[in-house]
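Budget justification aside, the reviewers requested a transparent look at the raw inputs and outputs of the sequence design task funded under Objective 1. We therefore reproduce one unedited record. The lines immediately below are the structure tokens for a 344-residue chain.
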């Protein structure tokens, strides 16, 4: 039987309308069924449930990204990212297509607001964690999408849709359904095993990178006229001490003070009140952690008057902290001297 695959196409809408139309055309020319969010309202929770059902029924998922994060739900997550997360969550093979950074792009089609830009970059990083293609124009996107889908059809064959007249008798159909369910269960178990092994490997690699990079932490004490000589510590030591504080969330000002007292080991009473550690250095360290998917900007709602910058552990950071703590509890690694001093 010749199956037609349902392919969900996701992106921000107005700025990528031409690109979406071309991808949809490519899917139709391949003889398959495109489905997209333009068929639904992105601002209605009931419509979101409809979109989820469409993704449930889709065989493949395509996301196109340029320089806009897109409209967001009440929690601050864009609907494009929400669709991507849901497709990955339920195991729909996902193909990412990101605009090459070297390509000139209209300003009116780009986000300029800081939070949106940051969230877009984090979303792109998430998409890049899986196989992804970079496109430079609509024609380039058209070709790369067609090739990537053909490869996905071969690498990850899906059930697809067939005419009712092509379906075999009832008994054979039930057996096919049973075997398909059994096969899906086995694939899910294999995927879970591979994911666990892959994550353990990723954690080990990340911890090795953190151990291999050092930063100088200076402090400004009360009564001083300049920064003190910096104390050299590894990013591993900083993350080890800072991560437990980021399990919920922490603002940048508090992080700077915490680094001064618990990493530079200077009593709180001796530190000046305003930025006791260099703000630019702390931001660089946080950017390094974010680049490694350890932390993300907090999405908790704040009062309009609160202009602080808040950070929290990402999913990978939570798993990495748990990995470190398990090793501590199993006495595979002892507490670092830095953490012991901070706890005194």
């Amino acid at each position: 039987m010749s199956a037609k695959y349902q392919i969900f196409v996701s992106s921000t809408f107005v700025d990528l309308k031409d690109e979406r139309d071309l991808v949809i055309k490519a899917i139709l020319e391949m003889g398959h069924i495109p489905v997209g969010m333009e068929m639904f309202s992105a601002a209605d929770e009931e419509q979101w449930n409809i979109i989820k059902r469409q993704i449930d029924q889709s065989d493949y998922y395509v996301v196109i990204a340029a320089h806009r994060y897109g409209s967001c739900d009440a929690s601050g997550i864009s609907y494009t990212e929400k669709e991507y997360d849901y497709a990955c969550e339920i195991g729909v093979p996902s193909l990412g297509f990101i605009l090459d950074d070297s390509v000139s792009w209209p300003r009116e089609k780009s986000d300029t607001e800081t939070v949106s830009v940051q969230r877009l970059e984090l979303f792109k990083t998430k998409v890049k964690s899986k196989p992804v293609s970079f496109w430079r124009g609509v024609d380039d996107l058209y070709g790369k999408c067609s090739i990537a889908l053909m490869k996905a059809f071969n690498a990850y064959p899906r059930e697809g849709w067939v005419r009712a007249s092509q379906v075999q008798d009832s008994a054979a159909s039930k057996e096919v359904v049973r075997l398909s369910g059994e096969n899906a269960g086995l694939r899910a178990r294999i995927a879970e095993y591979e994911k666990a092994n892959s994550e353990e490997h990723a954690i080990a690699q990340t911890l090795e990178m953190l151990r291999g990079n050092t930063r100088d932490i200076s402090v400004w004490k009360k009564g001083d006229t300049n920064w003190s000589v910096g104390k050299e510590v590894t990013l591993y030591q900083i993350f080890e001490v800072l991560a437990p504080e980021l399990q919920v969330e922490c603002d940048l000002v508090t992080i700077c003070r915490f680094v001064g007292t618990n990493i530079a080991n200077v009593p709180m009473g001796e530190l000046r009140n305003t930025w006791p550690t260099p703000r630019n250095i702390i931001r660089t360290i946080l950017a390094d952690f974010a680049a490694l998917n350890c932390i993300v900007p907090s999405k908790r709602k704040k009062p309009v008057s609160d202009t602080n910058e808040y950070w929290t552990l990402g999913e990978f950071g939570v798993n990495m902290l748990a990995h470190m703590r398990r090793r501590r509890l199993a006495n595979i690694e002892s507490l670092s001297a830095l953490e012991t001093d901070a706890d005194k």
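The first strand starts at residue 6 and ends at 11. The chain has a mean pLDDT of 87. Computational costs for records of this kind are itemized in the attached budget.
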